[in-house]
Amino acid sequence: MNTHQLELPALNSSDPLGFLAALGILELVDAALDQAVRLSWRGLAAPAVLHTEQPLSLNQLAELLAGFLPTEPAKEPLPAAPGILGLPRDTNLGAPNDALRMPVEQAHRLLRDFAAAERLADDPRARWFAALVNQFCVAPAKKAKDQQQKQQGVTAAPSPVPTQGPTWYTESTPLFAASGQMTLANNWVKAAEQCRRDGAHVGAALTGWIRVPDYTGANLDYRSTGDAATTGDGKPSQQGVPGATWLALHAFAVFRLTGDAMTSATTAWDSSGPLPALIWPVWTSPLSRTAVSALLEHPLVRADDLARLDESLTNLGLVGICSAHRTKLSNSYGPFEPGQVVWP
User: Sign of torsion, CA 227 242 76 120?
Assistant: First the structure.
């Protein structure tokens, strides 16, 4: 039974980055401690609380979390599930630039291998792989012939030899919005490198965030955009939070991916509006990682008319539901907008 509570003052229940970082902490601490670990919130717009069987201070928690930092982020960004983020990218013409967007046949094969390892040795990679590689949503490669012609600046005559059908590639989790040349792996690398460069970042994620100039923040935090009005020198600059971002990336393992072949989604994702949104519940009773996943998947959390469901939502143990839409950049989605309370 959990008897000790540790409040995490920097992680706010109505903030998308704070919510995800708290779930990332639950994921890592649950894997590290041989005891029941649970998470709750003090309330709406209130801090996260970690529940453990043994006493744990903020410094001890920071040390425990820092133990998951990779020693060489560029070689292995995710020690909790080694080998997944280090997979080589498919190099065929027209292939996506992200290695996690791989040919669907390769994804099926890898998941079978990881699942077999999980059955034999409790290997965690199958769950991580299924949370980062969405096999329910696929897209064809760009036409390799057209891409080659564009690079050469010529128009070739049609080939008399029939071409094979397109290679279909998986999508990644929609919790990550890639812009420019961003990939999920290189964002994990950058966050881990910042945390290794300055050991204060992991502890600061729990107590008071440290923003770093020119760090993008993996498109999880609207404040990381750092427009000219918010910077000290009056110039636009990225100002991400490495510690909270690194923890939030680990939250992805808690979300189950879904999709309809054309649109990538998770069980806490709403793509019905002009811009997709993350929708999450806020609860005050201590919940395990499994219980949190079940709550994220509950259909009432994403119901259309929440006002009619006051009693049902209260019976679920909720004190609120929050939402954060994606922003829109010129050619891609951007960071989450500020969190909004949508119930009550």
Answer: negative
Q: Which two tokens stand for residue 294?
A: 């079940």
pLDDT, tens digit (0-9, with 9 covering 90-100), for 215-243: 988 999 999 876 545 555 555 678 999 99
CA dist 129 and 24 (Å) reads 16
Dihedral-angle region of residue 321 (phi above 0 means left; psi in -120 to 50 means alpha; beta otherwise)? beta
Residue with tokens 């600046």: 153
Residues 144-174: pLDDT tens digits? 434 444 544 544 444 444 446 789 999 999 9
Prediction pTM value? 0.91
Nearest to 295 by CA among 319, 328, 317, 274: 317
Q: Following DSSP, what letter does each residue of 80-142 receive, concatenated?
A: TSTTSTTPPPP-STT--SSTTS-BHHHHHHHHHHHHHHHHHH--THHHHHHHHEEEEEEEEPP
Backbone angles phi, psi at 182, to 5 degrees: -65, 140
Q: CA–CA separation, 84 vs 100, rounded Å? A: 8
The single-letter DSSP state of residue 215 is B
Q: Which residues contact 29 (CB under 8 A, 6 or more apart)?
A: 37, 50, 52, 61, 64, 65
